[in-house]
Amino acid sequence: MIRSEPMPPEHPAPSPRRSLLPLLAAMAALAPLSMHLFAPVLPVVRDAFAVPQALVQLSISLPLLAMAPATLVYGPAADRYGRRPVLVAALLVFLAGATVAGTAVNIWLLMAGRMLQAVGGIGALVLARTIVSDRNAASELASKLATLTMVMVIAPLIAPLVGGLLAEHVSWRALFALLALVGVTLLGAVIRRLPETRPPAAPGARIRRGRLAELVVHRAFMAYALQNAMVTATFLTFVAGAPTVFADALGRGPAEFGRYFAAVAVAYLVGNFIASRVSTRVGSRRMVTGASVAALLAAIAALALAAAGVQTPWSLVGPMVVVVLCAGLSNPNAQAGAISAFPQAAGAASGGLTFLQNLTGAVATQLVGMFPATSTVPVAALLVLFSTLSLASLALLPRAAR
Predict the structure, then answer these.
(1) Helix axis angle, 58-81 relative to 42-49, nearest 10°?
(2) Of 175 and 159, which is predicted with more confidence?
């Protein structure tokens, strides 16, 4: 059973060995890396298998949907059995998925491999957040999560460009060979370097079977988790919808989309950098609220430009840079607020947080695929929708927290 109790003043002191942050960042980057590396080649895969756009879009939305229930398994399992064995299992699943997807002879096998890959990758993300929580006090958690995200975002920063270049000059299948190589490298590093970090004060599972509903009824957890999920949905709306809009409406190739996406990724990196420096001083609630308001205004600007007939790469990418900058500011603070609600079940709280994040992401990516890619209007409209919901989610915060 989860008990919502105050965070102890300090977690067990970190190991005197060198920092685990680079390894944790690489683990956390595995799932977004596989997403961002693949997104620019959606039109290429669609043509290679001669399938409709809505069907190939499932290779993005189904993996996100598969991630959602997996997160509910990883968190409690890590609280019961420890972080290391669960993480090793997740990385093995990721490698199996990369193998299946890279050798797929039809769209269905590709989807199956992508789903396996997603289930393994999301385990690494859940465990990375959990281990950061194990090693840091509540007052420092938002700053540490921001630093983690800032380091891990370097890989997704260059992933769309790399994916586009590989698709144009080698093959879209080369993406999965690269991901398999990354997975093997991480597995070796985890086995050699990662100690067990589960706090001795919280042995065993803190969420009994059938008691996951306790997360749902906790208002502070749900406010922060939903806000984080809706912000992620805005980002994934762009990731899933913009490549096809660039190809069909704007006549741009996957490599060019990758270059534009780099500006978006840099904005997220800048937001994380700012959050890592000021979150402890400003406070999570102020950071999340201010960023949510600014993101909504930028999304409205994108829709206004699209509705006025302005159809250029920067009419969409420009406002998206602001939206993603705000996401970089709010995400680590929202994640810290959600995980800190249950300090003695950090694995389960991290899993529940990621469950909502990927469930809404799956809905967003499939929703954007249902609209024609002949203009930027559908993508901009969905940005407004999810930005509005992210701000509205904060109304769930208890009055004292607001």
Answers:
(1) 120
(2) 175
Strand, helix or coil at 397?
Answer: coil
Q: CA 87, CA 84: separation in Å to the nearest integer? A: 5
Residue type at position 108: W
What's the confidence (pLDDT) of residue 83? 85
- What one-character DSSP code corresponds to residue 344? G
Backbone phi, then psi, for 393, in 5-degree steps? -60, -30
Residue 137 pLDDT: 67
Q: How far is CA 5 from the centre of its chain?
A: 27
Q: Which two tokens stand for residue 109?
A: 């096998």
DSSP assignments along 188-244, one per residue: HHHHHHPPP---TTS-S-SS-TT-THHHHT-HHHHHHHHHHHHHHHHHHHHHHHHHH
- The DSSP secondary-structure symbol of 317 reads H
Q: Which two tokens stand for residue 180?
A: 């398999």
Question: Which amino acid would we find at residue 98?
Answer: A
Provide the token pair at 235.
């980002």
pLDDT value of residue 3: 44
Q: Distances in Å between the alpha carbon of 180 and those of 68, 98, 219, 264, 398?
A: 22, 6, 40, 26, 44
Interval 4-52: pLDDT, tens: 444 444 444 444 345 777 888 888 888 888 877 887 788 888 888 888 8
Measured CA to CA in angstroms, residue 16 lies from 26, 162, 213 at distances of 20, 36, 38
Ranges assigned E (strand) in 127-196: none
Q: Kindly report the backbone phi and psi dihedral angles of residue 375, in degrees, each rounded to the nearest multiple of 5, phi listed first.
A: -155, 175
How much is the average pLDDT of 173-184? Answer: 90
pLDDT tens digits for range 191-216 = 988 888 777 654 444 444 435 666 77
Cα separation, 34 vs 36, whole angstroms:
6
Measured in residues, the chain has a length of 402
Residue 401: φ, ψ to 5°: -70, -35
Q: Which residues contact 261 (CB under 8 A, 6 or more apart)?
A: 36, 40, 160, 161, 239, 242
* pTM (two decimals): 0.68
Q: Which of 335, 334, 321, 333 has its CA nearest to residue 270?
A: 321
Contacts of 344 (CB under 8 A, 6+ apart): 2, 3, 5, 199, 201, 202, 206
